[in-house]
């Protein structure tokens, strides 16, 4: 039998159990609304959404690796492509593209073609500093940290804030050496 290779984002998305997209969108909106009510400061809500995403990301990477069949990426560029082409399709059903690489290959932009989290959303004037989808930046940061990549993920463009696209900047801060709790030769 031929070895099983990595699966495409479309193949994985079609085989995964899903919840109703509207239910997911409305539930996420209710969470953001409740955070705005509880925390009152928009910047605190941004931090909390990022932290929630981080906590999701450190767990989501296991499911991604198990269901996608991908092996270890050789570098940050390949990792970013895998997030855009497989990860976003697998979990959100959207495709993304990776652009604007710096000369060192440590910083890029991920541009989402669509963003299901923002269906039915309009930000009021009192929330103009809110990064409504900041949970996504936390998910990416958390998932990458679990595969030994310390990153900084920020929104650079957001349609809800009047921009023409949804764009995340992903910057590799450092590649963390893997530590093993014991040595095999002892």
UniProtKB/TrEMBL annotation:
Q: Where in the cell is it found?
A: Endoplasmic reticulum; Golgi apparatus, cis-Golgi network
Q: Which Pfam families match?
A: TRAPP
Say if the entry is tagged with keyword Phosphoprotein.
Answer: no
Q: Name one GO cellular component term.
A: endoplasmic reticulum
- Supply the alphabetized keyword list: Endoplasmic reticulum, ER-Golgi transport, Golgi apparatus, Transport
Q: Which residues form a coiled coil?
A: none
Family recorded in the similarity comment: Belongs to the TRAPP small subunits family. BET3 subfamily.
What is the name of this protein?
A: Trafficking protein particle complex subunit
What phylogenetic lineage does the species belong to?
Answer: Eukaryota, Viridiplantae, Streptophyta, Embryophyta, Tracheophyta
């Amino acid at each position: 039998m031929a070895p099983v290779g990595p699966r495409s984002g479309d193949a994985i998305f079609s085989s995964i159990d899903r919840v109703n997209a509207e239910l997911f969108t409305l539930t996420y909106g209710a969470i953001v609304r409740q955070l705005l009510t509880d925390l009152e400061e928009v910047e605190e809500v941004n931090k909390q959404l990022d932290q929630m995403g981080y906590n999701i990301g450190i767990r989501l990477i296991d499911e991604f690796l198990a269901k996608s069949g991908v092996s270890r990426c050789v570098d940050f560029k390949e990792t970013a492509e895998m997030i855009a082409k497989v990860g976003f399709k697998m979990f959100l059903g959207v495709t993304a593209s990776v652009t604007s690489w710096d000369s060192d290959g440590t910083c890029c932009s991920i541009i989402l073609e669509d963003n299901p989290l923002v269906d039915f959303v309009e930000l009021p004037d009192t929330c103009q500093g809110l990064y409504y989808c900041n949970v996504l930046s936390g998910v990416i940061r958390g998932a990458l940290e679990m595969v030994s990549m310390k990153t900084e993920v920020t929104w650079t463009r957001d349609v809800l804030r009047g921009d023409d696209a949804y764009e995340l900047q992903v910057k590799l801060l450092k590649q963390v050496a893997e530590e093993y709790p014991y040595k095999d030769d002892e």
